[in-house]
Amino acid sequence: MNSNPHLRSTKTAVLLLNLGTPDAPTAKAVRAYLKEFLSDPRVVEIPRVIWWCILNGIILPIRSGASAKKYASIWLPKLGSPLMHYSRLQAKELGEKFAEHGQVVLVDLAMRYGQPSTQHVLEALKAQGMERLLLLPLYPQYSATTSASSFDEVFRVLSTWRDQPELRLIKHYHDNPAYISALRDQVLGAWDKNGRPDFDKGDRLVMSFHGLPKRNLMKGDPYHCECLKTGRLLGESLGLVSGQYLVTFQSRFGRAEWLKPYTAPAIEQLGKEGCQRIDIFCPGFPADCLETLEEIAMEAREIFLEHGGKDYRYIPCLNSSPKWIEAMYEIAHQHLAGWPLGVESEITLAERDRLAELAKASIT
């Protein structure tokens, strides 16, 4: 077999990018994950020396064990991390969707922190003949803390390669019609199964997005605006009017002001005001994870019921719903325009041998 890399068939690849997850719900595994995650200057914009002392002296020793218990509460039997499970399913089914359309496209998943690492996955794609690469972040709303950080890591890896692939990236798809339609169907599917809220009686749909420090918005990060637009478009697609749904932000950390309204206090207030039922959905999370399954499906439920609420219904994330896989395909296909979605440079063995001899002669 000829080993000349220039004689191999070349392929187009789509790489899904997600945040990451601990390898196990243990203090040791969570500590390693949190250390990598919270050491990213895109995530925490505090002078490095000061933050190193806070992170290693306070946060990691205290939060690792507590977070491990939370991860254990949502860990899937035999499947492990929900985020990993659903993200892998998305990559697998997106690849199958390309195949259904007769297109040969490599599809894989890389995590920004933890495994499978971006470097490992990129090298595996390269070994399969990748010459064109589309980055599809599993962050519908762009933020420097998520999308940009994942892009940074891809750029870092590719900066070490002599022969780089053609590269395209999808910055965001917060208002893409296919994405909004998938969100709508996910909510309607839950309502078909469990009954629709009675908005005339004060029931509410809460859309909870991951929060960010307010200073990120003031420095120009478009995340806040994109979340609000997603919420508005989803509300409109469901036939709701202002007041029937509420956009909130969860996972606040530290003492600094974050994007408002905060999810937990908003849910508490709804309960105190006599709201009997809320349905809560996390449009910014394409796959269920700790922040949705523990913080929203469990902790927020307790808050609502403790403050007068009667009926709390968590709507699962898109995960591997057929409508979401179709939306991912449409979004990716739009950005693949002009690239061959098959295998290029297919040649016969005889032709390969002839070209190999020519190549060998040219360098001797």
From TrEMBL:
GO terms for cellular component: cytoplasm. It catalyses: heme b + 2 H(+) = protoporphyrin IX + Fe(2+); Fe-coproporphyrin III + 2 H(+) = coproporphyrin III + Fe(2+). It comes from the Bacteria. Pathway: Porphyrin-containing compound metabolism; protoheme biosynthesis; protoheme from protoporphyrin-IX: step 1/1. Pfam families: Ferrochelatase (PF00762). The keyword Hydrolase does not apply. InterPro entries: Ferrochelatase, Ferrochelatase_C, Ferrochelatase_N. Its main location: cytoplasm. Catalyzes the ferrous insertion into protoporphyrin IX. This is Ferrochelatase. It comes from Polynucleobacter brandtiae. The gene is hemH.
